[in-house]
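Quick one: C-alpha cells for this chain, please?
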Amino acid sequence: MNLLLRDKARRLAGASAGSISVELAVTITLLVIIALPMVDLGMGAYTQMEVYNAAQAGAEYAAANPTNWTTDAVSNAVKHATSLSSITVNPAPPSPPGSCGCVVNGQLASATCGSTCASSSTAAGHYVTVGAQATYQPLLDYPFLPSPMTLSSTATVRTE
C-alpha cells in the first residue's frame, strides 16, 4: 500500500512540472504587458520634466543676467540644460528687459514699467517668460494619447 502511494506521488510531481512552466510563461507575459506601458509612460513623464527644467534654466539665466542677456544666450541656456536633441525654445524670449508686471492672485498682470502695483504697493517688476518644447515618440500607440506627443513648458521669472 505504501509503495502504491509513493508511486502516485511521483507521478503527480512529474505532472506538475509542466504546469509550472505554463504558469511561469503566463506570469512573465502578464508582467511584460503591465511593465512595458509603465516604462514607456514613465519615459514620457521624464521627458516632460526635462522640458520643464530646460525652460527654468533659460529663465534663471535671464534673471542672473538682467541687463546683458540676449535671446540667443537664453536659447543656448535652454538647449544646454538638457540632453534632449529635439528641444526648441518656444516662445523665444524677448530682448531685455522683458515685460513689466505685477503679481495679482498668483498671476502675472501687465503693468507699466516703474508704476506701483495696487495689490502690493511695490514697483512693477521686469519679468521674462521662457518656453521650451520637445517631442516624445512613445514606444506603443495608446488610444488616449497622441503619437508623437509635443511636450511644452514655460517659466516666468523676475529679472530684477
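Residues 2-64 form the longest helix (63 residues).
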